[in-house]
Structures are given as structure tokens and as C-alpha cells.
Amino acid sequence: MARHSENAKRLLNGASWETLREEALAIPEGQRPSQEVKRDVLALAGRKTLDGFIGEKAAQLTALREQYESLEKLKDLSELKAADCRKQRLRLSQADAVPEEFAKIGDPDAYDAELKAQLSTAETRFRDAMQRLNRAESDLGDRSYEEYSEELRKKQAVFEEQKAMLARWKHIREVFTNLRGELLGDPMTDVTEAFRENLRILSGGKLALESLSEDLKTQLLSGNHPLTYATLSEGTKDTVSLAFRLAVLEHLWPEGGALAVFDDPFTDMDPERTAEACRLLQAFAEKNQVIFISCDEKYKNMLSGNVIREG
Predict the structure, then answer these.
(1) Which is higher by pLDDT, 131 or 145?
(2) Per-residue pLDDT at 149 exceeds 70
(3) Separation between Cα atoms, residue 235 and residue 289, nearest integer Å
(4) How far is CA 223 from CA 93, 205, 219, 220, in A?
(5) pLDDT surpasses 70 at 268
């Protein structure tokens, strides 16, 4: 019995039974049990201990009191927030001035990533360029980059001067050529064209005139192969001679009236070329006087006109 009395005193913690009873009766109805409240507090604290959780909240409460308990501090904080608000409003008012290329960016993060990738590539290229520059400077030897640059500058100046001089001389040549053409014309143009056509007819297209210079130097072609006078057969020489002779006569007497004498000119030609030569000579004789001398009777049937026999 004495033990129970001691336990009761310990639980009462010095309070009388009447006092505790009055306090219990004063508790409003519907109060949550202490164990339930303790369980919720522990759940709210999470992994922290109850003392740690209480200490953390107490520190936060102290910080809030220090921040807001003074009117001056609240005014200062209000001014900071107002300044930040003005700054944001200014940025907002300038939004219309954003360049169109940036205004169309749909995904800023993706655009930022792309720019960073481009920057990385540019930095890599810059490092490579610097390495090449260093190697180039190393290869300069005893001469400095500035010395080479000065030499290059001088040579470029000379080069540009030569280019300008060349342009002037080319212009002078062009003006001279045009003026000469206007004043004199090209006396060899019609001769060249007539020579080329006569040669084509006489050779059946096997020979072609590539060029005829003002000093009458002739370049002939057989297909794509150049020919020299030494490689021509006697019959081909006769062909070329007749083609050129008729071209010159037509140039000198464009209206006709020329007198041409031919002394057995087709002796070394083959029959096909001889026939073409007679037809070409017959056409020339329509506007010019032609005297054809030969002892070969075959020409009597190949050429028309008066026949004069010897004796």
C-alpha cells in the first residue's frame, strides 16, 4: 500500500488530486489524445528529431523576427523590392525592341545550347589557328613576321603597279585595234573565207584552213592534224594553190572582170579533185575571163567555152 502511495505522489508531481481533477474538467471536449498529437509532430519533423525540428523552426522564427520586427528594416526591404520592380518594368517596356531574329526563338534553352556548341567549335578552330600561327612564326627563322609583312607589302605594291600598267597597255591595244579596224578594215577576211570555202570544195572536206596571217602564212589541217608545206603531195599543193589564187582574184575583182591564165594546173591532181577544180573554175569564169592552156583532151568535155587549137 505504501508503494502505491509513492507512485501516486510521483505521478502527481506534487500536485494535489483536487487540482488535477479541476484541470481535467476544464479541458474542452473533443481534444486529441497526446499520443496522436505526438505522432503528427514526429511525421511533420520528418527524419529530424523532435528537438532538431523545433530548433530549426525556432531559428527561422528568430530570423523572421530580425528581418521584420523593425519598421526601418521593412522600409529598406520595401525600397529594394520597389527598385527591382522598376527594373523589371523597364525590361518589360523594352521587350518590343528585341531584334526579330531573337523574338522568333521558340525554345530559348535549345537556342542557348546551339550557341554554346557554335562557341565551342569556334574556340576549337581558334586554338588550331593559334597552333598554326605558332608553327608559322617558328618557321620564320631569324626574320620576324613584321619583316616578312613589309616585304610582302612592297611586292604587292609592285604587283598592283604592274597590273595597272598592263591594264593601260591592254586598253591602248584594244583602242588601237578597234580604230585600225574602223579605218582600214581587215583586208584578209574575205580572202580567208573564200580560200577556206574553195579548199573545202576542192578537197571534198578533207582539207581545212585553220588560219591565214597577214603575211600569208597558212596553217592547214587534215582532220585534227596540222600539215606543213613539206608534207603536202604535189596534187595537194596544186589544190591549195588554186583555192588561194581564186580567192585572191575574187578579192581584187569582187564585181568580176579579172583575167586569169592557167597553164595545165591540174596535172598532179587525182580525177575527183580535177573534176571539182573544173567546176570551180567554170563558176569563176562566169564573171571573169579565163584562159586555160592544156594538151589534154579530157578538159574539152569538163570545161565549156571557146576552144583554140594550135596549128
Answers:
(1) 131
(2) yes
(3) 25
(4) 82, 9, 13, 10
(5) yes
Domain range annotation of the chain: 125-185, 189-302
Residue 238 has a CB neighbour count (10 Å cut-off) of 20
pLDDT class of 3 with cuts at 50, 70, 90: low
Distance of CA 4 to the CA centre of its chain: 105
For residue 186, count other CB atoms closer than 10 A to its CB.
11
Beta carbons of 252 and 217 less than 8 angstroms apart = no
Decide if 207 contacts 199 (C-beta within 8 A): yes
Sheet strands side by side (includes 208-212): 208-212, 218-222, 225-227
Is residue 246 predicted with pLDDT exceeding 90? no
- What architecture (CATH level 2) is domain 189-302? 3-Layer(aba) Sandwich (3.40)
Say what the pTM is: 0.40
What distance in Å separates the CA atoms of residue 202 and residue 277, rounded to the nearest whole number? 6
Instruction: Give me 146's grid cell.
Output: 613584321
